Amino acid sequence: MVISSKIIKRVLVISLVLLLIPFIAMQSTKEVQWTLLDFIVFFLLLSGLGLSLAFASKKVAKPKFKLITYLLIITVFLIIWIQLAVGIVDL
Predict the structure, then answer these.
(1) pLDDT tens readout for residues 13-64
(2) What region does 34 belong to: left with phi over 0, alpha with psi -120 to 50, or beta?
(3) What single DSSP character describes residue 86?
(4) pTM of structure
(5) Distances 77 to 10, 25, 52, 62 between C-alpha atoms, Å
(6) Is the predicted pLDDT of residue 1 greater than 60, yes or no?
(7) Taking phi first (over 0 means left), then psi (-120 to 50 degrees means alpha), and beta for anything else, what does residue 26 get?
(8) What number is the average pLDDT over the span 68-79?
(9) CA nearest 70: which of 82, 52, 58, 44?
(10) d(CA 79, CA 8)
(11) How many angstroms separate the CA atoms of 69 and 80, rounded?
């Protein structure tokens, strides 16, 4: 196995903890209105980001290529997140 179960559990827990931010914001303001689907999608995005970075850290050996891979993964994550949040591309 390339990624240990300990790392997978850590990524999943961190993803769930980060989801507390919008959940708490929903309790204190009416401007944040997430549905269950929003939480599920963002959990999948965060988990995918964490697991992709963990996989890249194990598979890519050279520091220069590792940095490029990290930047590419984070860029894809941000583009998907922004698209889902505000729709920068009209599809």
Answers:
(1) 999 999 999 999 999 999 988 999 999 999 999 999 999 999 999 999 999 9
(2) beta
(3) H
(4) 0.86
(5) 19, 22, 10, 22
(6) no
(7) alpha
(8) 96
(9) 52
(10) 24
(11) 17
